[in-house]
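Comment thread on ticket #2218

A.B. wrote:
> Attaching the input chain for the structure job we discussed in standup.
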Amino acid sequence: MKTRIGVSLCALAAGLCLLAAVMPINAKPSTRPGKLLVRPKFVPGRVMRYNLKLAGSSAWAPREKGFHWGKMDTDFTFDLATKVIRERGLCTFNLAGQHLKSTASGPKGSLGIVADRRKVRLKIGDAWQAPSNKTPLVKPMTLTQGPLGGVRFTTGAVPIAIYLIPHVDRRFWGVLTAAPLGKVAPGDEWDEEFKWRLPDSRGNPMDLTGRWKVLGYQTHRGRKVLAFALAVTMDLKNTEVMLRNGDMAYIHSGSYSAKGKAMWDLSRGVLCYATADQKIAIRAEKPKLRAFRSQHKCTLDLISFRENTNR
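C.D. wrote:
> Ran it. Output below, let me know if you need it in another format.
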């Protein structure tokens, strides 16, 4: 049985590409000392273990065929091991899934999975299947990051892509998890523009402006790190949007809001933590009465780190 949570497999795989274009504006230069350039460091022999948690729900009322709705909870632990450091500041990692637990429901039914590198169990509908040693986590996968971090692209991840949809809009998540372009210091604030599209809409995306603030130095798993906050809100009242089915919907009231926090371990040059919450609520009155509501959360946490000191 194939389960689809309202999007195509191509879109699921594309959902893994979290890096968005960054366009800082109205930056406020700081006169305080200690401004630093935040950058990922790509080092041979490095292995990082992350935990990714995704949770959320979306629904249109009334429900319509072809429109997105569903719920998902995913807990995924994986290792990133440096494979090759490329030209132009890119690095490709071997991605090795360690543990995966996920439940999802949508227009085509429900699906669950519990897997490690030895075995897997699937739940289709209400019935658990017999355990199998054909676990998708042993398939070779790679992930490539750019000079600002984030994710440029992945390979081999299609078998698990359905469980790794970044429910928080991938453009917001991409901005949140990329390093800032310029040097920063605690207390700095600036605006950043990015694109956003209402789920199940088409045409030109909307322009949003997020507000950054450098929160200062905090502690993550016993290490001193630099923390950032990003927030954006948009009033969607009296907005017209072209929906997937061709309707030009008139949104009588609604809002989009997202807030996130990111932490960088500067000495290691790694993003060690990121979390984001997103809420969307709209009420459309033309060409017919519709409502859409969604709430999603995404958290990425660096839980272990090691380097080959014998290289």
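A.B. wrote:
> Thanks. Noting for the ticket: The chain has one domain: 9-39+46-303.
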